[in-house]
Amino acid sequence: MSLVIVVGNPRTASRTRVAAEQLAADLSADPPRVLDLAALGPGAIGATEATPAVSQAVQDAAGARLLLVATPVYKASFTGLLKLFLDRFPPGGLDGAVAVPVLIGAAPAHLALADLQLRIVLAELGAALPAPSLLVEERELPAIADVTASWVKRHGGRVA
After folding, report:
1. pTM (2 decimals)?
2. How far apart (Å, rounded) are the C-alpha atoms in residues 160 and 94?
3. What are the pLDDT tens digits along the chain (160 aa)?
4. CATH number of domain containing 44
5. First to last CA, the chain
6. Domain of 138?
């Protein structure tokens, strides 16, 4: 897998997914593999025994060269659904992957969530994080293509 998007929004077809897919399109001409965790089902992701679909999603994410990890800011953190998914990886389970956290939040202060929580978890799993996280404020969603293009212009070389 070259480019994989993990969408941790508990709703399928979310604005979080749209933002991550736009960033992926700006970073690569190759179509990404999208792992929409809501479509897999929170019960399946949190179950003791992984379903074949959940096991495949973990394998796909672990095999990514570039991993976009997208989540809305939810109760001052990333979603529990995303946490359940990330808990399925052993230490070093994302070795070899470059990861970019993508957050949808209400205010610039929500970028601290990525830096204080999500980036630390991804680094613990072995992912490289050479570029800043992308925070898309809710008010910016109508112009998402401009937001992602600006981020890629400044930071895309670091993740290429």
Report:
1. 0.94
2. 17
3. 599 999 999 999 899 999 999 999 999 999 999 999 999 987 888 888 889 999 999 999 999 999 999 999 877 789 999 999 999 999 999 999 999 999 998 877 766 776 778 999 999 999 999 999 999 999 999 999 999 999 999 999 999 8
4. 3.40.50.360
5. 15
6. 3-159
